[in-house]
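Run log, item B.
One chain of 78 residues. Sequence copied directly from the ordering sheet:
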Amino acid sequence: MKPLIFASVIWGLALIPAAVEAKGCIKGAVVGGVAGHMAGHGKVGAVAGCVIGRHETNKRDAQKTDQKSPPSPRDNRL
């Protein structure tokens, strides 16, 4: 049964459309799933890893955007 589930998950991940933004989620889910499996809660760890991975990616993207944007004239006033 486990090989069938594993194959289904791999097949599903391969067919995810490019428009879906899962940055950080997949990597976080893998890490969280492994850590959760060691603690006996693999599925909960995968979900938590996905949420945390997505949050961290969004935070990093926001920092990059802030660094790239030019300062507005209002920022120069004291």
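Observations after the first pass:
- The mean pLDDT is 75.
- Residues 3 and 54 are 28 Å apart (CA to CA).
Flagged for discussion on Thursday.
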